[in-house]
Specification:
This is Ribosomal protein S18 acetylase RimI-like enzyme. Keywords: Acyltransferase, Transferase. It comes from Streptomyces demainii. InterPro entries: Acyl_CoA_acyltransferase (IPR016181), Diverse_Substrate_AcTransf (IPR051016), GNAT_dom (IPR000182). It holds the Pfam family Acetyltransf_1. The protein has a five-stranded mixed sheet, sandwiched between helices. The N and C termini lie far apart (42 Å). Helix content is 32%, strand content 22%. It contains four helices and five strands; from the N terminus they run βααβββαβα. The chain has 157 residues and is of the alpha+beta class.
Amino acid sequence: MSVTIRPADRRDIQALAELIEEIERFYGSTRIQPLAERQSQVEEALFGSPPMASALLVEDEAGGLAGLAAYSFLWPAAGSSHSLFLKELYVRDTLRRQGVGARLMNELPALAAARPGCSRVEWMTDHDNPGARAFYKSLGFAEFDGKIIYRVDTNTT
């Protein structure tokens, strides 16, 4: 199957909101926000002023969204540089194990290199996600043990 990888644009808001529901369900969430709320969040995150994030999208042969790589630039990284942080990598089940995820991962270093002052690409996965860990290892990426992640939820509802 042939796919196109391209940056998200405003015409993708509804399809991205629908894909986000699929991602939430993939990770086991049972509390799914209404579509209109997800659409508003996608619009604000990707097209607000300033945008909070960017996304590369996987478009299948029929023009439907089949995956994404959502990322942001963070500062500071090494020295006074910044990094591209991959927040979410997701490919629909129908396209998994066909090289689509690898293509997305190959695009990210090019995006980082094209941005002056960007010194690295970083991402994380859960220790208990053997599929993701095997995928990254198959691409030649080594796990980095130097960080412990902390999280505080601000939404109490």
